[in-house]
Amino acid sequence: MLRSSGIGLFSLLLVGFLMAPNPASAELAGHGGFVKGVAVSPDGRQALSASFDYTVMLWDLERQAPLRELNEHEGAVNAVAFLPDGQALSASDDGTLRLWDLASGTVLHSFEGHQGKVAALAVSPNGRIAASAGWDRTLRLWDLDSRSAGAVLKGHASNVNGVAFSPDGSLLASAGYDATLKLWRVADGTLVGSLEGHEFAVNGVAFTPDGQRLVSASVDESVRLWDVATGDTLATWSGHEGPVFSVAVSPDGRLAASGGRDGTVNLWDLEDGRFLRAFYGHDAPVWSLAFTPDSATLLSAGSDELVRVWDLASGKEVAANGAAIAASETLPQDRPGAKLFAKCAVCHTVGPEGGNRAGPPLHGLFGRRAGTADGYKYSKALKNSDVIWNAETIDRLFAEGPDVYTPGSKMPLQRMPNAQDRADLISYLREITGPKEP
Prior knowledge:
Blueprint: E1 2-3, E2 27-29, E3 35-40, E4 46-51, E5 56-60, E6 65-70, E7 77-83, E8 87-92, E9 96-101, E10 106-112, E11 118-123, E12 129-134, E13 138-143, E14 148-154, E15 160-165, E16 171-176, E17 180-185, E18 190-196, E19 202-207, E20 213-218, E21 222-227, E22 233-238, E23 244-249, E24 255-260, E25 264-269, E26 275-280, E27 286-291, E28 297-302, E29 306-311, H1 338-345, H2 380-383, H3 391-400, H4 402-405, H5 419-432
Antiparallel strand pairs: 1-18, 2-29, 3-4, 4-5, 5-6, 7-8, 8-9, 9-10, 11-12, 12-13, 13-14, 15-16, 16-17, 17-18, 19-20, 20-21, 21-22, 23-24, 24-25, 25-26, 27-28, 28-29
Helix pairs in contact: 3-5
């Protein structure tokens, strides 16, 4: 009814980007962490991706090759959008939205106001207003012309996960952990209705091009189609095994796509509600989806650190000409510390050619001063650190916790209270990170 009203054990900082040639791949590969957001430019020639590794990457979509890395956020980046005049917008766990000049890769402005993670963003059809969804239970409007804060929309009882503008820009739809979708009037920020029917948190929302319907994705494993005017559920689609995290509608209004924890992308016919096909390729949750302007191709972003490009007619991945992900490192698994290092391996490489991921490379770790790995963007706290990594300092890091031993660093709060576990991890690190540095 319509009624009124995350990083591994050694993640000491953020992001670099890792690439090696492998022309057989059919992905946009280069991030060192989950890819949380993806967007396609209005002309269909470029894409943006947002990652847990704190970076945004700009891609040549035809060549599937990286053009630029944008690295100024102080937390995971969750959403991205193209703007007119060669600009882009990104939203992050650091509570900010950043306005970028894509030609130079510089930050033009930082929008601040959210008291917590910014989970999603949307840009009005005319490109003049942005809306952001935050884990402080608010939505916020931003004037992109004057680069100033607008209305703060309060109405959700919990975190807000998704946001979308109607095609005419007059309405805003939001998706919340409180299992509701809410409709807001953009002109004055008034709450005009609440759509209820999902059993659990709603993660994503998208308008159809005619503005008359909404599509939503939920933790309750369903995708729902709504009538905007009445608030009625028009269809409920089940096809994912587990929570559904993302949803998108094709520009021609014929298709809806959904992505879930099961790593599957499902395609639905909006005209008759039929399930059309599933795309299998991700081996981890799918967080974001974006259609190309011609509605012929779909991009999906996943926890496998990839953006995959799908041809909708054939159901196959589009062949890549450029970007490819580096081969996985093979590490000994028969050591006591191997399981303990598994979480670290998500965000750190250990080989001499590994490079940066969500955290700095660990090759040559023992004997190295904290904050000095080449090419990695460290926090000021680590850059100015006098810590030398060795058995004693690594032991203290996990015994005391990074908030105590390296205060001000970006490493998540985590401790390893068991002394034998710490010893096993340190022994394993000695083996896999190579020779000591002087």
